[in-house]
């Protein structure tokens, strides 16, 4: 069962929640349909690398039916979006939801969780990427750019 960004399993309204989706076109000549979802509530109960675990499962499952490039992009999307929720979520008592769906010629990966900074709804994805790269070079920090690069790449085509 999928819990959208406005509800948690107990049916209570969740404040400060967001939902982020990565989608891309896929070659699907046999019209294979795949859909699954995962909900963990609350986030504070997660003690391991849930982003890596789910992302590896997505990679292996999609790799059985689709090109490795598709499975790889879905893997990166899951890792980055789940990591954003885990590291930057505003409410550790809130849920994490992951949904992966291929229907027709479209792959969608959706992650819902406590509110985090949104970067997908920008007109020019180069601007936040350039700002983040500059800030990280000034602060001498690494990481945190995978999803922005994936979004930029997906908007090219």
Question: What's the short story on this structure?
Answer:
The chain is α+β, with helices and mostly antiparallel strands and 157 residues long. Helix content is 38%, strand content 21%. Strand 3 (96-103) and strand 4 form a beta hairpin.
SSE order and pairing:
Layout: E1 17-25, E2 34-40, H1 50-63, H2 68-88, E3 96-103, E4 106-114, H3 126-139, H4 146-156
Antiparallel strand pairs: 1-4, 2-3, 3-4
InterPro entries: HATPase_C_sf
Organism: Polyangium mundeleinium
Protein name: ATP-binding protein
What features would you describe in this structure?
It is a single chain. With 157 residues, this protein is α+β, with helices and mostly antiparallel strands. Helices cover 38% and strands 21% of the residues. It has 4 helices and 4 strands; from the N terminus they run E-E-H-H-E-E-H-H. The chain has helices at 50-63, 68-88, 126-139, 146-156; strands at residues 17-25, 34-40, 96-103, 106-114. Strands 1-4-3-2 form a 4-stranded antiparallel β-sheet, with helices on one face. A hairpin with a 2-residue loop joins strand 3 (96-103) and strand 4. Helix 1 runs antiparallel to helix 2 (68-88). It starts with 16 loop residues before the first strand and ends with a helix.
């Amino acid at each position: 069962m999928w819990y959208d960004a406005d509800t948690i399993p107990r049916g209570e309204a969740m404040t400060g929640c967001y939902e982020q989706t990565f989608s891309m076109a896929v070659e699907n000549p046999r019209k294979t349909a795949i859909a699954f979802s995962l909900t963990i509530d609350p986030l504070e109960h997660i003690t391991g690398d849930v982003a890596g675990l789910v992302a590896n499962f997505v990679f292996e499952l999609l790799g059985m039916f689709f090109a490795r490039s598709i499975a790889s992009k879905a893997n990166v999307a899951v890792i980055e979006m789940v990591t954003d929720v885990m590291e930057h979520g505003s409410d550790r008592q809130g849920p994490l939801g992951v949904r992966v769906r291929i229907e027709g010629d479209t792959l969608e990966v959706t992650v819902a969780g406590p509110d985090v900074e949104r970067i997908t709804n920008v007109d020019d994805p180069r601007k936040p990427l350039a700002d983040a790269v500059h800030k990280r070079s000034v602060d001498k920090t690494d990481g945190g750019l995978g999803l922005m690069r994936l979004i930029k790449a997906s908007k090219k085509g």
